[in-house]
Automatic annotation (TrEMBL):
Catalysis: reaction(s): N-terminal N-formyl-L-methionyl-[peptide] + H2O = N-terminal L-methionyl-[peptide] + formate
Key word Iron present: yes
EC code(s) of this entry: 3.5.1.88
Protein name per UniProt: Peptide deformylase
Entries under PANTHER family matching the protein: PEPTIDE DEFORMYLASE
Family: Belongs to the polypeptide deformylase family.
Amino acid sequence: MSVRPIIKYPDQVLRQKAKTVPVVDKSIKTLIDDMIETMKAGSGCGLAAPQVGVSLRCIVLGMPEEEPFAIINPEFVKRVGEREIEEGCLSVPDLGGHVKRSISVIVKGLDRQGKPIRVRGKELLCQALEHEIDHLNGVLFIDRVESPDKLFKKEKPVEVEAKDAAADLAASQ
């Protein structure tokens, strides 16, 4: 398992429709393991294969305090309701925005063994499923922001700012 570089917007792989995974073999299982490690390293709750430069229909999800899992060739079976939420993306690290997402979804696909699965998602899992499946279709959350006033620049985390301030102070002495 290894952490792969996360592809950043405006790289064109993020805008392509990903290809169907024809067979779940060792290379797909390695991809899944690497994606889970990459997602954890980036402190994300989901990651799509195009975000690591692989244009295949594979996503991984890792909800807080739950074991991460993969869905290969995911498809929506059902979407219910609508809500507006704040969203960000590891591939668009400097921006956040308010987007409309479903209240709940049901997604079908294959697990890492190639067996059929169905996943019901509400709240964060629902949001992550929609966000990651969007990636497989070449859609980014910034495409779902209704107007520029619903997009915002993310602030650096406090620890990074403190580190920067310490470096500036050391350089001035």
